[in-house]
Amino acid sequence: MRDELRPFIAARQNLYNDLKQWKKTSDKKIIGCHPMDIPEEIVHAAGMLPITLMGYDGVIKHATGSLQPTIACNILLENLELCFNGTLDLLDGVIFTDVCDTIPILSDIWLRHSHLALHHLMVMPKHLNSPSSRSRVSEQFFRLKASLEKLNKKKISDRDLKRSIGIYNQNRRLLKRLYNIRRSKPGLLGASDVSAVVTSGMLMWKEDHNRLLGQLLLKLEKSPLPSSYPKVRLIVTGSLCGCCDSALSAIEASGAHVQWDDLYTGSRYFTSLTNEDIDPVEALAQRYINDVPSPARFFDADAWADYISNMVICSGADGVIIIIRKFCEIHADDFPCIQNKLTKDGIPCLMIETERAGISEHNKARIQTFINMLERE
Amino acid sequence: MEIKLPRLKSQIIQRQLFTDYWQELHTAKESGKKVAWVSGMSPSELLSAMDFLIVYPMNHSATCAAAGVATSLCEISEQNGFSQDLCGYQRCDIGSALMGDQTLSPVRPPKPDLMLVTSNQQCHQIFKWFENISRIYDIPLVMIDVPFLDDTATEEDESRALEYVKEQLREFIDFLEGFTKRRFNFDHLQECMGNASAAYDLWYEGLFNAAKNIPSPISTFDLFIHLGPMLYLRSRPEAVDYYQNLKNEVIDRIAKGQGAVPNERYRLFLNGMNWMKIPSLAKLCASYNACMVTGIYPLLFTLKGGDISRPVEAMAKSAINSLLNRGLQTRINAVANLVRDFSIDGIIAPTIRGCKPISSFQLETMREVEKLTGIPNLEFETCMVDTRYHSDAQVEVRIQAFMELLENRAIK
After folding, report:
1. How far does A168 lie from chain B, in Å, by closest CA?
2. Given CB atoms, is A109 within the 8 Å cutoff of chain B?
3. Segment A159-197, tens digit of pLDDT
4. How far apart are CA A49 and CA B260, in angstroms?
5. Minimal Cα–Cα distance from A1 to chain B, Å?
6. Chain A residues touching residue B119 (CB < 8 angstroms)
7. Distance of alpha carbon A334 from alpha carbon A355, whole angstroms
8. Is the pLDDT of residue B372 over 60?
9. What is the spatial distance between Cα B133 and Cα B115, in angstroms, rounded to a whole number?
10. Which residues contact A179 (CB under 8 A, 6 or more apart)?
11. pLDDT tens digits, residue range B97-133?
12. Is A130 on the interface with B (CB under 8 A)?
């Protein structure tokens, strides 16, 4: 299986060098999308490559002089460092959404230090409870479309946008098939492998990702059920704005199988489809409004808690591991509500905080203990 | 020997005003009045127009900090799953709500009938805080969403934002009519807005701008202390009387050449805030003949009035024009202008743990302000209410070193 997974894993490893090489021979524009909730389909329909900016693991030297490091999460600091150290000069533009308190500020700091042709902040409604807030979603999506059209000096036709929506929907269906295989054939795919597959799709043309995914799925569907597999099955949720590979590896090393997930680089990316039969911008707005509950919006915490609880019940998992990025205030604020709901429903749960260096030995020990406890039950 | 700073006598009047107001709050049920908890930059005049009594949870946390119980209340929140990295105000207030009647709070705010949060502070944690409180008390929460106007915002973005906020204010008025089962009282709204606008003008001219005088008749400490009526009582005529009286008192100090700090030699700017430490910080600075004459924070939590004949438009404009709702460059320019206008020698810039909208960009702002004005700054970490994140000894050493720097600059 390693051979089939190689292109997905490689997509992340040398991303910026590969993009630099690609730029030499292509006249296509590359747009950096700051997590989360950017309608990539609009970028794709403009003929540009949307790539999600999910930080990097190099040294942070400059960003900490502008963005307070003792209150900003690692993804924001790492992305700002990529901006400051020139790595992101290859981009033609960057798009932000105001999903947390720091991103609007980060966007303005970025603007002062970078001179990309496009700098766009999507200011989304903080809640979706009223007609006026819901109509603001499509207004913001139209505003993004207009910015991209201005950059390209060319209109994005409804036909092109519908085509992109179709390609993205196809990608989501394929990813769902991948998740179904993981659930039905535990042990066949590691959680980090699945994360690599999903994440790579945020970094390459969706058409290429669909092709690679199709090949992988054929192989996986033919593969037999592994003879032995872990007894404990878990749901992993959270890790907003980036990956949590070290936590996933620790979970598997402790002898549990990730049955399904509610991760940003996981099912949150593909669960909702876009309606292909209505006005395309309106359809994308509808997808945003009806998407899985998000801590970036308000009045969603109870719905999110219910969503996770239902996921556990439907997948037959034994418990939940909640992964919160250090200094991610939107997630930390919803955590007590989720914890209360899961406890009320009798679902064991463990919260793990991840930092730049991954997860600590202390947290690895907590994961091990949690899984041992579930094994005994 | 501890330095005694001269207090404005209006503080005594304020104490009486608040004693009466809290009495009114605690007897709200008996008098048939409803209580609303609101965020700092909310259009509370809409609620006052319908005879709601207002409580500001942020102010409640500050009061708990001043009484020395905030850290214990924060710990209650943490025991219930709230991260230590979250805003201290939030952890303190939620801790108090979770304790119910057993709260350690010295003022014990009455349970709200309604909560109103407005997003022009661009602080997600306030929304989540209010959401959590509304969940604890099981009462309705209304949110007025004010879109952030960043440094790329165009006139069209601003006009769309204005229309969006106006629409929500109208939706809120409809909600209030349903909630109270009464027609909305627009006449009373205009009275409330008139009082709020007059109180703001008196506060701004009589107190805030008075600090431009050398020596400054007031310190940041006074600015903070005298924000209370602006928050709670601004819709009432008592607020206008209060700020008129305060203005007269300050004019008297100016006429006598009396400074808030005796022998004022250095003038400091406070870029940030720390409720629990403001009095000791002011005294510490005064021991070096330095007066913290002003700061950005009081401007962030006061709303300028507008044309009261078009109340919804005026409130929406006021909401989107709040400094916290504007991009980084606007804020940098605002600080640089204040530093110049108030003849500032140095900036004290506390980074407040958990307060992202004010502290995330402190480093960038201070660097740019120093470039624009040549005025040095001192940064240190603290928390608004939680004593576990503040070290008196470290702050004292850093202020001492900073004052030596200012002295060396003065000699040169």
Report:
1. 29
2. yes
3. 999 999 999 999 999 999 999 999 999 989 999 999 999
4. 60
5. 41
6. 126
7. 19
8. yes
9. 9
10. A194, A260, A267
11. 999 999 999 988 999 999 999 998 888 899 999 999 9
12. yes
* Amino acid of residue B242: Y
In this structure, what token pair is assigned to residue A108?
A: 């303005």
Reported as a single tens digit per residue, the pLDDT across B215-231 is 999 998 898 889 999 99
List all residues of chain A from 70 to 89 with a beta carbon under 8 Å from chain B. 70-72
Residue B292: partners with Cβ closer than 8 Å, 6 or more residues away = B219, B220, B221, B268, B269, B270, B281, B282, B285, B348
Question: Are A127 and B353 within 8 A, CB to CB?
Answer: no
What pTM was computed for the model?
0.94
Cis peptide bond upstream of B215, omega within 30: yes
Using a CB–CB cutoff of 8 Å, tell me whether A335 touches chain B.
Answer: yes
Contacts of A144 (CB under 8 A, 6+ apart): A38, A39, A42, A95, A120, A122
Cα–Cα distance for residue pair B215/B165, rounded to 1 Å: 42
pLDDT exceeds cutoff 90 at A227: no
CA distance B257 to B81: 53
Cβ–Cβ of B124/A326 closer than 8 Å? no
Both tokens assigned to A350: 């463990």
In angstroms, rounded to a whole number, what is the distance separating the alpha carbons of residues B252 and B273? 28
Note whether A139 contacts B160, CB cutoff 8 Å.
yes
Q: Is A339 on the interface with B (CB under 8 A)?
A: yes
A120 vs B contacts (CB less than 8 Å) = 152
Find tokens 């769309």 and name the residue.
B160
d(C-alpha B406, C-alpha B404), whole Å = 5
Q: Phi then psi for B325, rounded to 5 degrees?
A: -95, 5
Q: A304 contacts in B (CB within 8 Å)?
A: none
Best of B87, B353, B360, B363 to disrupt the A interface (most A CBs within 10 Å) is B360
